[in-house]
Amino acid sequence: MLAYLIRRLLYAIPILIGVNLLTFALFFVVNTPDDMARMQLGVKRVTPEAIEKWKQQRGYDKPLFINSAATSTAQITDTVFWNKSVSMFVFDFGYSDDGRSIRREIATRMTPSLAIALPTFLIGLMVYVSFALLMTLFRATMFDLVGVTLCVVLMSISGLFYIIGGQFLVSKLWHLVPISGYAGGMDGIKFVVLPIVVGVIGGIGSSSRWYRTIFIEEMGKDYVRTARAKGLSELRVLFTHVLKNAMIPILTGVVVVIPLLFMGSLLTESFFGIPGLGSYTIDAINAQDFSVVRAMVFLGSVLYIVGLILTDVSYTVVDPRVRLQ
User: Fold this and answer.
1) What letter would DSSP give residue 221?
2) Which domains does the chain have, with CATH numbers?
3) Are 205 and 151 in contact (CB under 8 A)?
């Protein structure tokens, strides 16, 4: 187990380097340091001197990848890519282009993101699995037909519809919760209720239908027929055997959500005015703040890799036959 974890962590290094390199290349294909300076200075006509000063203050006055004017290793180390990227591997994200500490912003904004993402994940998982189990239990009946039809309808509707519709119905017409904003402590509950409900409803269609497919596939296997032959009830077969053996594909799907628990939802936080990591990323993209963008992409990649490792380890818990070599 220990050797497996060490090997996976070593595999993560070239992956993170590749992600960092790709993010850097894509960003500077669209934007040049001069474009970033004009955006940050916020004026239509800015002098070349002001642009150069802005670039020097933030380290964008050097070549991007190769510094041909330098000698030896300085040709690589004295570049924008090296100076902006290497420090991230020790989680030193530096400062945004407006001078704020990125690490402090991440620490501050992580709480609002978790306040929405974690309840949405836990409540949603229970709702989706329970609904899928009910459709599987009453498969080939009217309940199953209506449930599958509802899932197809729900997954065919854009997530923006749920957000805007929820704001209009619950906040504007019924005045139950604020339409947007956020507050700390217990006062923040009224601001996160609607985003959580919208997030859960928006995922019912695709998630429940996917879980139903997994359960239906398990229901056709030999061990299920053997359990039925022994006289076990359909309810006991479903919850005792099928659910347990379906945990591996369920865990595989859950790992995709792990980065979102920390990174936040881009659309949800933007539309509801939640000062989380999702809205922080959107604001950085709009402002062409490369320092924030590459930090958030790097952090998301790290969380995804950690999620994959945790998923592999959890396989050994739900299925003792799985061994990590």
Assistant:
1) S
2) 102-318 (1.10.3720.10)
3) yes
- Take residue 127 and report the two structure tokens written for it: 């709702």
Q: What is the pLDDT of residues 17-48, one digit of tens each?
A: 898 888 888 888 778 888 888 888 876 678 88
Q: pTM of the prediction?
A: 0.84
Tokens of 103: 């690490």
10 Å CB burial of residue 196 (0-12, 13-18, 19+) is buried
Write the CB contacts of 27 (distance below 8 Å, at least 6 apart in sequence): 290, 293, 294
Alpha helices in 59-185 (DSSP H): 74-77, 80-85, 102-137, 142-155, 159-166
Angstrom CA distances, 229 to 140, 224, 298, stand at: 21, 9, 52
Cβ neighbors of 39 (< 8 A, separation 6 or more) are 287, 288
Tokens of 79: 């570049």
Residue 317, judged by CB atoms within 10 A of its CB (0-12, 13-18, 19+), counts as exposed
Spell out the residues 6+ positions from residue 84 whose beta carbon is closer than 8 angstroms to its own. 24, 59, 94, 290, 291, 294
Give per-residue burial for 1-34: e unless 16+ CB within 10 Å, then b: eeeeeeebeeebeeebeebbeebbeebbeeeebe
Asked whether the beta carbons of 79 and 63 are under 8 A apart, the reply is: yes
DSSP states along 48-67: HHHHHHHHHHHT-SS-SS--
Give the tens place of pLDDT for each residue, 257-312: 777 676 667 888 888 999 999 889 888 888 888 889 889 989 888 888 888 888 77
SS3 category, 216: helix
